[in-house]
Amino acid sequence: REMLARNIAIRNTDLTVDQLNVSVQRILDRLIFVRNLEDRHIEQEGRLLSVAETKTDIYSKLVPVFRNLDRDYNGLLFKQHFSEKLAVDDKVLIHIINHLSWPLSPYQFDVIEPEILGRIYEKFLGSKIRLTAGHRAKVEEKPEVRKAGGVYYTPQYIVDYIVKNTVGEKIKNKSPDEIKEIKIVDPACGSGSFLLGAFDYLMNYHLEWYGKNRRKRSYKNDWYETADGEIRLSVEKKADILKNNIFGVDIDQEATEVAIMSLYLKLLDEGFDKGQAMLFLKGHVLPDMINNIKCGNSLIGSDYFDGQNISLFDSDEAKKVNAFDWEVEFPEVFAKGGFDAVIGNPPYVRQELIKNTASYLSSTYSVYSGKADIYVYFYEKGISILKEGGTLSYISSGKFFEAKYGLPLVKYIVKLTRINEVIDFKDLDVFKGASTYPLILNISKIKVIDYDLLYQDVTKLDIEILDRVTDKFSFKKINVNDFIDNDFQFFDRDIATLLERIGKNSIGLNEMGYLPLVGIKTGYNDGFLTKTERSDFVNRYVFGKNIKRYAPIQSDSNIVFPYKWLNNEYMLIHDAFSRIENELKPFKDKLEKRAIIKEGIKNGNKHWYEYQQINRNLNFEKEYIIYPNVSLGNNFTLSKGYVIDMTGFIIPTNDRWLLGILNSKLIEFLMKLWAIYRRGGYLEYKVQYLQKIPIHKIDFE
């Protein structure tokens, strides 16, 4: 890719960066596709190599090959394209073709499954070609990929499981004619891994059905029998399945092209008799998928531009937003009520990375939350494009069941759908190296008031994982009303009953007036923390890791925290800034993004200030109960004269009896139910869970 991009950029100086990206991918896609045809003995082996061996005018000789393939196969890849008029050096194309062909190539394309090729393309799609000021090409990771730490593709067993429990359920016991009406979509399809999984499942189901119904003459053109007595689907039937059943959308044009190519390769996976195909299909071996797999922003419609004087076709803003109107783009699907199945792995992109759309999202989506991850909106969109009775299944982060930003989404799901099952992987490394805490959610667009949802807490990843999660007998049955009553926690009936019994004679910490307070977040430790000696405005600073059960604080640092009180409600930190202003300059932009950071003038000198709102009754000279927010178990203790950072909580009391209750086995049991599990067996406790700790009502008289 890089070699081709550099050459095309140098030889075609009028190309825009978008045109460069599109043309490089189209040329590579064509070469890889032809190599697949050769290795599957559909096209003559060495067709590309024979062109490369001529040594001169390679690209001008390849274009007629592409035109012939377009005539034979139709589809998308070989349609006339502006890239055919580009200047490309012979040396570059000869090198690429030679290294895709025997004997220099290490690849045997007839055994590389389309799914594997799709995963390779995921890496490809994680980067983009950019042009320097001198019109030189460079391939760089996309910012969102760099921020995420790389490309993470969905493991095949996850794809298989989701497809089996959505597509599989929708087509169960149906005939091929009935299945033609089933519409399946991935609204963030990427290179098409879920679409490939759905296509593969549909083909296998049809094979099995035809095997059991060989005598039905009306289907005789859908399949044929090999010399070994095996049933194979005709190319025409495979194309029919693609056109009728498989749909996808992605904001990345290159991704949609890869998805289409991957589906084409899957269609040709077993090879076929080209002569037979050309005789009957007359140049339509590959179905035109342009109306099935589309490029657009699944979350934003053209109403984004209402009231703006912007051309939807010409402006840079319109191209960047890439608005997509589902009912306009798929009119036949929505004429029948919507999609039967929505599947996929929606992207995880923090909302603040797409600030320009925040106002649109807030006015359009019921699940809007200022701190939400973008996958939250894919749930609402997915539900909205489902027909009544349709099923949605995603793998996504499960944090929305635990974090405050996810509450509107959970309520939306409970109100409009039936939760069929939840498979919770917690801290398991499903996406190698990514801390996503994923779960699989399967829901149907039907309203049921009283039912049991199935919950599976997966504790180990191994080769038998799919069998284990498929064993429905191992799932917990959780009544939806218990789920709602227990703040959307996945407790079975026994736990729900226990919580109900404990709650009858108890009140929460918040009701006692002991609302747990999160420790202080500095934003920039080197600026706010100092080594100065203790004074009227300085306290020792302690981290959560220093807090142990019942133990006095053993701080491993002499770090202190300078502050002053303002109106007994805010504290003002500034001492450190006047001394290290130069060090802070590189962090100015970062600091100013925090609402509590201000810049001011004092005695003619510039100072930085941080205002931290705190409980007006909090006084660090008093003794308080404190607790780390990440721990292996309950570690409450008493503290005096220490300032706690964000890795700890403060409970503004020094009641010894309360300390004993908080450290008890019963409360630890409850805390572990509510905790967010982190790697290494650690538990993270959020304020919303701490404040509802049930404390037995005591008559102190």
Note down, in words, how this protein is organized.
The chain is built from 29 helices and 29 strands. The strands form eight sheets. Strands 7-6-3-8-9-11-10-12-13 form a nine-stranded mixed sheet, with helices on both faces. Helix 2 runs parallel beside helix 12 and helix 18 (375-384) runs parallel beside helix 19 (407-416). The longest helix has 23 residues, at 17-39. The protein starts with a helix and ends in a 5-residue tail after the last strand. The relative contact order is 0.07.
Compact overview of the structure:
The chain is an alpha+beta fold.
The overall pLDDT average reads 82
Q: What strand line-up does the widest sheet have?
A: 7-6-3-8-9-11-10-12-13
Total strand count, please? 29
What gross morphology would you assign? globular
Notable characteristics:
single chain; 701 residues; alpha+beta; nine-stranded mixed beta sheet; four-stranded antiparallel beta sheet; 29 helices; 19% strand
